[in-house]
Amino acid sequence: MKKKLFLTLLFAAASFTAFAYNPYAPNSFDSVNPKSWDYQTALSLCREGKAPDYDERFFNRGEITRYELAGVVKNLLENNSQKGDDGQKLAKLKKEYARELESLGYHEEKKKPGGTPIFEIGGDGRIRYNNDGKADARVRIETRANIG
Question: 83: number of CA atoms within 13 Å, CB side?
Fold first, then answer.
């Protein structure tokens, strides 16, 4: 009886971990096909000199993994404005390599809200009556300021 219970629990545990793995997710250390759109896009942008830390020689050294190509994409994103045709290409690359870029420490700078300064005051108040006829009160005030 104990053996059957143990084997059942072991099978259940193994099946839960098997379902947790996504076989369709790209592996960061798989080679990138030199004929793929992402490889060709990064190569063409490097040939144009848009990635200061990389040039065509980086691509000529053999197979490149997704992680290495994400390093090129990170360099492209950090050194170029994302406008025009190049901006569309970079946005597509950024979406494709989001996981690898995150592991490389790439974070987009958030735009600070411009315009008029904001000053908010808010809060809540409470009055509590006890059974013996006494009352107590509490007021909380919260302020928030965004001064340009």
Answer: 1
Give buried/exposed letters for 51-79 (b at 16+ CB in 10 A, else e).
Answer: beebeeebbeeeebebbbbbbbbbbbbee
- As a whole number of angstroms, the distance between CA 147 and CA 54 comes to 41
- Return the residue matching tokens 């989001």: 98
**pLDDT tens digits in sequence order for the chain, 148 residues long:** 778 877 787 777 766 655 566 666 777 888 899 999 999 999 999 998 888 899 888 998 888 999 999 999 999 998 877 777 888 889 999 999 998 998 888 887 766 556 666 777 787 888 888 888 888 888 888 877 776 5
Query: Which tokens sit at 138?
Result: 């509490």
DSSP tag of 64: -
**φ/ψ of residue 83, rounded to 5:** -125, 155
Residue 27: closest CA among 116, 97, 114, 110? 97
Instruction: Give the pLDDT score at 93.
Output: 92
The C-alpha angle with vertex 143 and arms to 107 and 147, in degrees rounded to 5, equals: 55
Describe the crossing of helices 66-79 and 84-96 by its angle, rounded to 10 degrees.
Answer: 140
